[in-house]
């Protein structure tokens, strides 16, 4: 008889633990399902834009676009980026005049946009330096 009461208490304890774990699981699921993933997506979009601008500067694509007054290399890189990201890039001179515009074709934005501006310097043939700004705007399709 003494063993039977221990078994009953052990079983009751296990049942209460299962009920409590179930309540905690569904409470956590309810709270996490209300979390907005748009913040995560926007941060990822900003990071992608920063990476693209950095690589365009480091591999001299921005410099070559200004030297040769062509945006085809930039447009090709934007078109070859992630298939669900639309982006455009405008290069401005130091006096804030747009020099080149490159954008990904066949894009329609459906949501928030990420805007990133990067400055870069290019040496001139006479030994002086010229400052430029690259403004990239990106969004998800």
Describe the structure.
The protein is an alpha+beta fold. It folds into two domains: 1-35; 38-140. The chain is 49% helix and 27% strand. It is built from four helices and four strands; from the N terminus they run H-H-H-H-E-E-E-E. The protein has helices spanning 2-33, 38-58, 61-68, 72-79, and strands at 85-93, 98-103, 113-123, 129-140. Strands 2-1-4-3 form a four-stranded antiparallel β-sheet. The termini are far apart. The relative contact order is 0.15. The model has no long low-confidence stretch (mean pLDDT 84).
Quick take:
With 141 residues, this protein is α+β, with helices and mostly antiparallel strands. The chain has four helices and four strands.
Integer-rounded radius of gyration: 28 Å
Query: How many beta-strand segments?
Result: 4
Distance from first to last alpha carbon: 70 Å
Quickly count the domains: 2
Describe the sheet with the most strands: 4 strands, antiparallel
Q: What are the secondary-structure elements, in order, as H or E?
A: HHHHEEEE
Structural descriptors:
141 residues, 2 domains, alpha+beta, 4 helices, four-stranded antiparallel sheet, rod-shaped
Write the layout of secondary structure elements.
Elements: H1 2-33, H2 38-58, H3 61-68, H4 72-79, E1 85-93, E2 98-103, E3 113-123, E4 129-140
Antiparallel strand pairs: 1-2, 1-4, 3-4
